[in-house]
Amino acid sequence: MACERNGMSDERIGRALIKQVIEEELKVMPAQDVPPLTPIVKMEVTTEQEQKMVSQLGKMIRVIGDRVRDDKEFQDAIDGVAQGPGSKWDKFKQVADKVFEHGITWERIAVLFYVAGKLAVRMVEARLPQSVREILMWTVDFFKNNLLGWIQEHGGWINSFSELAVASMQHMSSMSSNNYSLVIIFIAGLALGSFITWRLSR
């Protein structure tokens, strides 16, 4: 049973966020190569507050995910799911287990969702578009079975913003000072927006 906080469901937000991240990553692929992702599982958010939260979290996940893009070990693991013999589910589970090998954090949840988006792109590139839906379903199942309880115990998605903002800023520390300032302003805006959304929903 999904826990409701201020009219918002952590499960609905998580499902919608996974779908949004995967769809965002798939935008780089030709539209005719990408299978529709709905209706596979009911993933729609039901309130404007939930939609705003999904949108803001999606932006932060993309910033954090850029670090994974430069991690050769992760890229090799992602490539390994799409290529070679063996169960793709087992390989996906190995990648997910690697993400959380040192425990669950908000940042690692963001990384898993980003990795799912990259896996979906690899599946389309490997001419396995039917596997995109499998990636979506596997990620949702992993989220429900392994992460949702932790999210609820840690105050729900609304409590993820501060840690994700810090992780995003740390990742951007290597950027030029001009870009870094823009990122800080962007993340501060996201955090303020999420706080306002939270206050209005109380």
Automatic annotation (TrEMBL):
Instruction: Please indicate if the UniProt record lists Cytoplasm as a keyword.
Output: no
Similarity field: Belongs to the Bcl-2 family.
Record's keyword terms, sorted: Apoptosis, Membrane, Transmembrane, Transmembrane helix
- Mind telling me which PROSITE patterns this protein's record contains? BCL2_FAMILY
Name any one GO molecular function. BH domain binding
Q: Which GO terms describe its biological process?
A: extrinsic apoptotic signaling pathway in absence of ligand; intrinsic apoptotic signaling pathway in response to DNA damage; mitochondrial fusion; regulation of apoptotic process; release of cytochrome c from mitochondria
Q: Name one Pfam family in it.
A: Bcl-2
UniProt domain Bcl-2 Bcl-2 homology region 1-3: residue ranges: 61-157
| Assigned GO CC terms | mitochondrial outer membrane
User: Where do the TM regions start and end?
Assistant: 180-200
Name of the protein in its database record: Apoptosis regulator BAX-like
